[in-house]
Amino acid sequence: MRNIRRRQLLGGIAAVSTFAIMRRPADAQQARFDGVTLRVATFGGGWDKAVHKYAGVKLEELGAKVEYVTAPPRDNLAKLIAAKGRPAPFDVVEMGDLTWVDTYEGGFIQKIDLSNIPNRKDLLPTQSDDWKVASWVTQEGIVYNAEKFAENGIPKPERYRDLLHPKLAGKLCLIDISQAGASQLLVGASLDDGGSMTNIEPALKFVKEANPLQFWKVGAQAVTLMKSGDIWASTMHAGFAVQMKKAGLPVAFCHPKVGATKRGLLKEGWLGVVKGTPVPRAAEFFINEYVSASAQLGLARERGIVPVNGKARVPLGEDPILKEMFLLSDADVANMVSVDFNVFNLDEATQRWTRTVGAR
Amino acid sequence: MSARSPAVRLRRAAAATWVGLAFAFLFAPLVVVIGASLDGGERTFLNFPPQHPSLHWYTRISPDLFEALGISIVLGLTTAFIACLLGVPAALGLVRAQFRGKAIVAALFRAPLQIPAVVVGVSFLKLYYSIGGATDTYLGGTLAGLVIAHVFLATPYVIGTVSAVLQRFNLRLEEAALSLGATRWRTFRRVTLPVIMPGVYAGGMYAFLISFGDVPVSLFLGAGDMQPFAAKIFHLMEFDFDPTLLAISTLIIFGSLGAIYLLQRAVGLETLSRSGGGN
Amino acid sequence: MKARWQLVLLPSLLLSMLLLAASQFAFLRGSFFKDLRLGRLGADLTIENYVRFFTDSLYLDSLLLTVRLSATVALLTLVIGYPVAYILARMRSRWSLVLLAAIIAASFITIVIKVLGLIIIFSSGGTLNRLLLASGLIAKPLTIMGQTSGVVVGLMHFTMGFAVLLLYGVVRTIPRSLEEAAEVHGAPRWRVFQRIIIPLSLPGIAVTFLIVFNLCMGAFTSAALIGGGKVFTLPVLIQQTVIMQTRYAMGATISVVLMVVTLLINALSVVLMARLDRRKTAVA
Question: Which of B122, B138, B236 sits opposite A78 (nearest CB)?
């Protein structure tokens, strides 16, 4: 069994070999997780299956059992709140970027022993700290029907405000405030128009003027409308553009310019260890496997996310569609806008959004 | 009635048109779903009418979905059974007893109908954690936990349908049985129960439907392997649309038609629907 | 004898109240404390949340919208559903059972799937809109997404099956012989309706109206999916407040208002019905 484990650690990623030798003593101490059950709160919709395939099985090979609690991050946060002061309902929690702040503030997660996450060396420095490790990245922007744009003489969008083109009236979807990704739209549109992460007035003005056909809550809604021709453009993440392109739709993706130099918007998923978990070591092992190059590459190919692991981004460039839709080079990724949730107040933004767009 | 005057014929035509339109309204989305499930062409979208007819997606339905469906059926049946156990005596009491504040008691029984399902979900989750803290028994993510919350939601429907039947029930039948020396329990079993049975079946069916269709409560109380079908579908749609959903929905449409056929053979649909509604 | 029926009622009442009180008490109690987010509450009792609800147009407008929407759906459901129920109930062929079975089968399909079907039907390039546009009946494509009217359509898909089943039961309780007797005596059809069928099914109709109304007041899925993020009914606001903003106290406050308003409307209708009933008996 230990051989299998070592082979996996080595598998395909040359640079890890030195690491495997370095880690040997630790391996000897806790090489197996017999009898351990790890409960992981993550997304449903098949994401849990993919995570299990690429990360969960590694833990199970060492004798543990991995269970998944599937719900949107906000619902899982509600479960943590309900469980407050009592044993946690799960051990590892996957959060959207907007849920992370609340989960941290609420005191629901504990410090991670980063020495147990060797794979973080392949992540950007901002993508791991004592409390969280980034699990994936999506790139937020605009998916548009290039054919319809060309037919109607609408110029290719370069920034959010290009969506205010008169010919796009009624042909537009925007992401709903309840979805992870809305914060990127609000911050991106604000920064691009004289606002800031604290002053989102320009973005609200943009949202009101855009007056979209609808704000999508379920990705399938926007995809269906795109396919039927009801809409020609929607703010979504690039993974959707990949999906649609592979299904034969003439779509293109715009990483919006933000201000003078920045281009594109990052949204990260985060993994945390739930406070009071009886199995912190298994949780950390799972997180390490989750961000490994092989798992990240598998998740990217299968589910359309952008890997956090730099090594996994390289082979993605060989896929022409992925290359077209994603920003993959380290320089490009570093030039993207990240929302700072310690500054951006989603709670207030949600209330103002509701007042701005509510229909009577 | 056998005379087919022009007026009668006109009336029949109008009736048929009305029913036809109402059914078209009710079934159009389902027809589209069934149609789109037969399209084997693309992965991401709904295609109607189907452009590449195939049963492809039917072969791809994940075993998980069937498992979730199984959970939902067990959950629905258990919920219906317990809701009837609670609802029948409650209806008997509400209709037969005379006491001050009866209207208030009736309103209290109806209260679950007026609590938004999201609130029911969050509040039961909190309740389960409180119980868990005190007794070390955690109901969140268990079948029992789901059953309790669904019984809470569904019992008012049983009370409604059974009350409706009881209100039309002739008390003299019972009195006659009693005067002939039958015991109270025997009277209930042999006289009262058969008469209110249609209401019980109907209430049980509504209870099943409420449980089977519930999303918001299951979202909070389901977990891991214990995820009812409707909530599972809601999740699937939230992240990524998967055409196997259309396929399994189509199977459910036909499956429920089959179940209803069996029900008709067993108890008769007439019975099911002869209950009127509510108090 | 009378006391006994109360005893029969007692176990159910105790159990139901236990569930109601245990699950709702802590949550609703929260509405009287200051909201500190993340499920945290202030220490002192306050009616601040209620003041906020009744002074903020966001919540008041949403309350009005929810009541208006629910009443509209309940009314339309009855207007369309009652004739269907009546016709099915009076049908002499086996078809009535088949149609009834179809309605029940339709009720098994989750509204989430129905909504996807609706989106395809009402898509601007879809068959329906092409037909309507070609026939000149409409000038621009019909849409239901992001519209209050669309939410009404979605809710009707949610309630129609229930309502027809309930109303079918109501009509079945009116003896057919009554109608036939009236017709034999030469009463015109509309008079039979006006004098016999409608008055006799009125209690059932009222109950169905209330059930549908209550269902809509608490419904979340249709408004969330079809409303396109623009139609904020109270349940949508509750979900947003509790789940997105983790403001449990404010969420509880909205819930209390929603519940009390619904109860009041129900009570009012019951009183009205009782008065109507008394007048009828007095006339008879």
Answer: B122
Give backbone dihedrals phi and psi of B49, rounded to 5 degrees, phi first. Answer: -65, 155
Residues of chain A with Cβ-Cβ distance to B132 below 8 Å are 86-87
Query: What are the structural domains of chain B?
Result: 1-54 (no CATH), 62-273 (1.10.3720.10)
B:49-88 residues touching chain A, CB 8 A cutoff = none
C220 close to C235: Cβ distance less than 8 angstroms: yes
Three-class SS of residue A257?
strand
**Is C125 an 8 Å CB contact of chain A?**
yes
Q: How far apart are CA C151 and CA C223, in angstroms?
A: 6
Distance from CA of C23 to the nearest CA of B (A): 5
Return the axis-axis angle of helices B193-213 and B143-167, rounded to nearest 10°: 140
Query: With contact defined as beta carbons under 8 Å apart, do A276 and A150 qualify?
Result: no
A66–B contact, CB cutoff 8 A:
no
Q: Whole-angstrom Cα distance, residue C106 to residue C84?
A: 15
Instruction: Read off φ and ψ for residue A171, nearest 5 degrees.
Output: -115, 30
Residue of B nearest to A178 (CA): B238
> What domains sit in chain A, N to C, each tagged with a CATH number?
2-137+267-320 (3.40.190.10), 139-265+322-357 (3.40.190.10)
d(CA A177, CA A174): 9
**What DSSP assignment string belongs to C215-244?**
HHHH--HHHHHHSTTT---HHHHHHIIIII
The residue ranking higher by pLDDT, B182 or C155, is C155
- pLDDT tens-place string over residues B149-191: 999 999 998 998 888 778 766 667 777 777 777 777 787 777 7
Neighbouring subunits of B (3+ Cβ pairs under 8 A): A, C
Which of A339-348, C3-12, C23-32 is the least confident region? Answer: C3-12
Q: Which residues of chain B are within 8 Å of residue A86 when distances are taken between CB atoms?
A: 129, 132-133
Average pLDDT of the residues of chain C? 82
C117/B212 CB distance under 8 A: no
Tokens of residue B61, six digits: 């339905």
Calpha distance B30→A1 (Å, rounded): 51
* Chain A touching partners, 3 or more CB pairs below 8 A: B, C
Instruction: Give the span between the Cα atoms of B151 and B87, in whole angstroms.
Output: 10
Q: What is the pLDDT of residues B259-272, one digit of tens each?
A: 777 777 776 666 55
- Closest chain C C-alpha to A121 CA, distance in angstroms: 33
Contact C266 B114 (CB under 8 A): yes
Residue C188 contacts B where some CB pair is shorter than 8 Å: no
Cβ–Cβ under 8 Å, residues A137 and A308 = yes
Residue at token pair 């500054």: A343
Share of chain C above pLDDT 70, in %: 95
pLDDT per position as a tens digit, A145-199: 999 999 999 999 999 999 999 999 889 999 988 888 899 999 999 999 888 899 9
Fold (CATH) for C47-283: MetI-like fold (1.10.3720)
Distance, in Å, from the CA atom of A127 to the CA atom of A268, rounded to the nearest integer, reads 9
CB pairs under 8 A between A and B: 90
Cross-chain residue pair C251–B212, CB shorter than 8 Å: no
**How many Å lie between the alpha carbon of A302 and the closest alpha carbon of chain B?**
12
Domain ranges of chain C: 47-283
